[in-house]
Every structure is written in C-alpha cells, then in structure tokens.
Amino acid sequence: MARAVTTNRKVVSTVFGWAIAILIFFPILWTILTSFKTEAEAIASPPSFLVFDWTLENYSTVQERSDYFLHFMNSVILSLGSTVLGLLIAIPAAWSMAFVPAKRTKDVLMWMLSTKMLPPVGVLVPIYLIFRDIGLLDTRLGLVIVLTLINLPIIIWMLFTYFREIPGDILEAARMDGASLRDEIIHVLTPMAVPGIASTLLLNVILAWNEAFWTLNLTAANAAPLTAFIASYSSPEGLFYAKLSAASTMAIAPILILGWFSQKQLVRGLTFGAVK
Amino acid sequence: MFDWLERQAPKLVLAPSFAAMLLFVYGFIGWTAWVSLTKSRLLPKYEIDGFGQYERLFNAPRWDVAIENLAIFGILFIGVSMALGLLLAILLDQRIRAEGALRTIYLYPMALSMIVTGTAWKWILNPGLGIEAMVKGWGFDTFTFGWLVDPDMAIYTVVIAGVWQASGFVMALFLAGLRSVDSEIIKAAQVDGIPTTRIYTAIIIPSMAPIFLSAFIVLAHLAIKSFDLVIALTGGGPGYATDLPATYMYAMAFSRGDLGQAASSAMIMMMIVFAVVVPYLYSELRTRK
C-alpha cells in the first residue's frame, strides 16, 4: 500500500517494529548467551543477562562427551546430499513443466504439492520396517533417500516458480538460430536458471537441516544429525541448559548466518514462492 | 529414435519424480491402511481383521486427549498466528526503516528447527527459571507461571511456542498481500476522507481473502502434523497431557510396540488433513480453469 506516512507515525512504527523484533529474537539470543555461561549461571535466578564469566567450556564438553562433530557432519552430509540428489531429479521435471506444459501440468503440480501436506506419520511405519529389513536404519544413505523424497515436491514447486519467470521468447529465438536441445539447455537455460536453482538449494538445505521427524525416528547413534542429537541430549543426562545451548547454538548459527546474507531468497523460499 | 526421445523428453524427465511420489505416497499409505485393519502389535500381521483397531482407538482415553489437544492447539494456533501476522504485516507496511532486516528477523523462528529453539523455550517456561524467576526478581513474589508442568495448561505453552514460530511466516504472506492491493483505490479513499482503520477493514482486508485462505490451509496442515513442537517442549507430558495425534502415533509405534494402533491413528490424521486440504485444492483447480 503505497502512501505517505507522517514522520511521527513512522518513528512510532519503527520503534514498535524493533521492539517486536527483539521480543521475537529473544529465545534465539538467549540460547546463544546461555551457551557461554557455566551450568550454575545458566540456571541462576534472577538470570544474568550480559554480566557473567564468559566461557567456551560447554563447547568442548559437548564435543568430548558425545562427539558433537560427528552429528554436525551428519547434518551437513544429509542436507547437502538430499538437496543435490533432489535437484538432480527435480530440475528436469520442473524444466519440463515450465517450458513444455501439457494440459494437465497444473493438476500434476498441485497434486505433487498436496502430497507434502500429508502427515509423515502415514508413511513412517512401512519405511521404518523396510529400512530395518534392508539395513538402512541409522545410515546416512537411508536418510538422504528419505529426505530427498519428502522434499521433492517442494523442490519441484520452487524450481517451477522460478523457471516460469524465464521468458519463453528467448528459447524460441535460440531455436530459430538453430540451437539444438542440448545447446538450449547448456547455453541459454542454465545461466538464467542458476539464481532460481541456488535459492531452491538454500531452502532445501534449511528444510533438511531442520528436519526432525524422520531423523529422530530413523537414526540412533551413527547417522543422527544435530536435531536428533539435541532432541535426545536432554533426556539421559538431565537438563544441562548451558551444554544443551552450546549444541543448539552450533545448530542454529549456520542458518542465522546463511539467512542473513540471502534474505530475499530466505523469505521467498520459506513462503514457498508466494513472496517475491 | 532420437526424434522420438526428444518429443517424449518432457514426459520422460517427469517420470522419476512422478513415480517416486506415487510409490512414496500411495504405496506406503496403502500399506498403513492395510495394517490398520489387522491385529498387528509389535510386528506387522497381514490378515485383515476389520475395524477393531479403530474401535480400540476411539475408546482410548489417550487418543481422546490427543484429539482434544489438536482442537485446542489448532484453533488457537491458527487464530492467534493469523491475527498477529496481520498486525505485524500492517506494521511493516508503514514504510519503516530497515524493513528487510525486520522481515528476516520475524521469519527466523520459521527458519530454525523447533527442536533446537525449544531449548530456550524450556528455560523461559520453566517455573523457577525463565519468566517466573524474572517477574519474581522484579518484586512480585506471589507470581507463578507453571503452565509447562500443569497438565491442564501445558498445551497452551505449545500454542505459545507455535505462534512464536509461525507469526512471522503469516506476516510475510500478508505483507505481500497488502502490497498487491491497488494503491489507486486507497488513494481515492483517502481523498474522500475515509479513516485509515475503515480503509483497512472495508477495502484492504476483504481484497486479501485468497491469502487468508492460503495462510489458513498452511497453518491448518502444520497444526495437524505438529510433532517437533511437542517433542521439543514437553515430550507429550506431563503424563500424556500434551499428546497430539502425531506424538500419539509415535508413542504407539516406537515405545508401545502397537503397530495396529499406530497405523489406525495415522489413517485418522490423514483423513483430517484430507478434510481440510481437498476442498481447498478442488476450489483452486476450479478457479484456474
């Protein structure tokens, strides 16, 4: 809604907007702060805000006790692996739907997207049993396959919304100049598709990085990524807020940083293309 | 041969995705539906036994709690997230400074795993730490905030964390909607001296009806699928006071060794999602043609 807003109101809105931002960011900030406290300070009452003995002890303790780095690497491998595999399957599919639409393309797309709305519990048990029988439980490979499959509809949808914005005229012009299908893909389509692919990649890395339902249910000690590790961390050892916060901080830091430097893509991705 | 390939290429490249989803969705849902009709306990059995599992499910007090919680959580989560999301969107629409940064911060909770951010929420909601300790520290000695450990109130802490996570997302959707409203109409209304609140309630918000519907659908299916939230905050407790259908199913499948109950509860959840999503998809497809 483009309209003039008086300066006074603008100041009030700005102050209000930042106050809410601080409120929303507080739990995240608190996790980060707590990760640098000792256990005693983490549960001190009243809580200390910035004045405490900053320590890195929690980070080393978590690493020593439960090989945190392994879980971090699992998260990296699972999110990158499933994203790359997903893109390999989805790029041709989205390309086909965006540039060679058939009569039912829209229906197929809506159907694909609708499958993402189904609760994953509906397919959990059979997958669990199959994985157990063929030895894929608690393996990275098994999870990469599952994460690829569950995010495939989103990947195709996102790529489709980006590909649709590529003007079809350019392809036609290339074809008129005698470009083959191969040339068309390599020299014309790819350069224009890269930004969309990159944003889809970002979104999917975030989705896979955060995935908790499948990772929690299909992994134990070996293939568990950070989410599953953190979910299980509090129960056996009681609640160690500072150590738990250290593990959590390491899990959120990559996304906070990645998100900050690609704000536009983050917003568009998280709203599934609705916000450009 | 190559010509044929080139003509069929669009369909061929679509096939793997299509097949994967077909198997993943219908194959495995079919399996779940089948098992829900058997006497499976720890191991799946495949002799059809009728609707016994569903009878047991509907008679289970724990399932009643899960469904009741879903109703409470669903209504409050959707209602409050939409209301707050709309207010935040209107706020950000006032052309304030550093809007991009604010929008990103508002969206951060959605970009992070609830399992991870739950760490802070457990602290905030912990009676004796977090909010309670803070307010007591200000001198209000009688203040208590023990919802997290109160079986009657614990589900509302799940609502609070859920709203925190989703409001920014709803805001982003609504902000895009506000920006797409024809500014000429608004200018004309302002020239006519119509007050701002009236412009919002009578012109802007009604024209955003499709966005309200999309936001509703997304939130509704998130509510039905909710799993992380409960696991992160309460683990379903105290007792099973904060069970939702997804955590009920999880408990049956993995800690109770009751596959039949797990499968039948999964089928009911699926039906609830269908009841919400199918009419929406139907209307979407009809309006596009």
UniProtKB/TrEMBL annotation, chain A:
GO terms for cellular component: plasma membrane. Belongs to the binding-protein-dependent transport system permease family. It is a multi-pass membrane protein. This is Sorbitol ABC transporter membrane protein /mannitol ABC transporter membrane protein. It is found in: Cell membrane. Coiled coil: none annotated. The lineage of its organism: Bacteria, Pseudomonadati, Pseudomonadota, Alphaproteobacteria, Rhodobacterales. GO terms for biological process: transmembrane transport. It holds the Pfam family BPD_transp_1. Keywords: Cell membrane, Membrane, Transmembrane, Transmembrane helix, Transport. CDD domains: TM_PBP2. It comes from the Bacteria. Its main location: membrane. The chain crosses the membrane at residues 12-33, 76-96, 108-131, 143-163, 184-207, 240-261. Residues 72-262 form the ABC transmembrane type-1 domain.
Automatic annotation (TrEMBL), chain B:
The chain crosses the membrane at residues 12-34, 70-92, 104-124, 153-178, 199-224, 262-282. It is found in: Cell membrane. Its main location: membrane. The keyword Ubl conjugation does not apply. CDD domains: TM_PBP2 (cd06261). Keywords: Cell membrane, Membrane, Transmembrane, Transmembrane helix, Transport. It is a multi-pass membrane protein. One of its GO terms (biological process) is transmembrane transport. GO terms for cellular component: plasma membrane. The keyword ATP-binding does not apply. InterPro entries: ABC_transporter_permease, MetI-like, MetI-like_sf. Residues 67-280 form the ABC transmembrane type-1 domain. Belongs to the binding-protein-dependent transport system permease family. This is Carbohydrate ABC transporter membrane protein 1, CUT1 family.
